[in-house]
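Protein modeling request. Please complete all fields; requests missing the sequence field cannot be processed.
Requester role: graduate student
Desired output: 3D structure, token encoding
Chains: 1
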Amino acid sequence: MEALQFSRCVGDVLLARWSECSNSTFKALVNSSPFMETILVENEVQQEVKLLDAINDDHEGVIVELNKPINSDDFASMLRASIAQWRKQGKRGVWIKVPIELVNLVEAAVKERFWYHHAEPKHLMLIYWIPECTHTLPANASHRVGVCAFVMNEKREVLVVQEKTGILRGTGVWKFPTGVVEEGEHICDAVVREVKEETDIDTKFIEVLAFRQSHKAFFEKSDLSFICLLQPLSFNIQKQESEIDAAQWLQVANWLIVRTSMFSIVTLQLPAVDVIG
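Delivered output (277 residues):
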């Protein structure tokens, strides 16, 4: 009987409160009776927003790798809620890896003040800085690394090529085989590979002879290029049809001046004795 009277009292209070407040401002939280459900109203029923899955990095930041399709509006809500949570946790940098299949989410992230860090063939990396100070996130890769091969046989002939493309196309200029180091590739392996691709000559890496640095060389990036000494292991040239117009062993004197696409003028003094081959 007492429980029934109590529940009626609670009901009377709720009805009175309802009559005093509009639907948009009615707020009540009643959890004092086993006969009543918890009521939470604020213009509409509040729903818990799921947070983005993230892992901690080594610098008090988080990394998010998106891998499931999601509506851009839902993603925006999750992103805002996640940032609020990370801010409470004292996190700093936020990295979001967006696969190319989920490119529709990029605009939502940019609207939350994320910016581009770098792009790869299959994903885009976005970053965000939570603290109210200048960010300390590392910049994207700043240099491209190239190689240039100096290959001389026992006859003191140097391996040279003429390119079908590039700034030296059609000029008749002979140059050393050159190329760009691939991701995860060592310089010594890259230069051997480039010679093989352009001339079909097998070689052995000996040492780095020289290197140079330039700036704003390729899409405003800096460039590091290494001239490498290689020992030929084969001698019959088969030029690369797609990129090389001509290739040969070129006889030189004790001083060699060769113009290349990676070095303006390269002057090399040849060894006094035959040490290669």
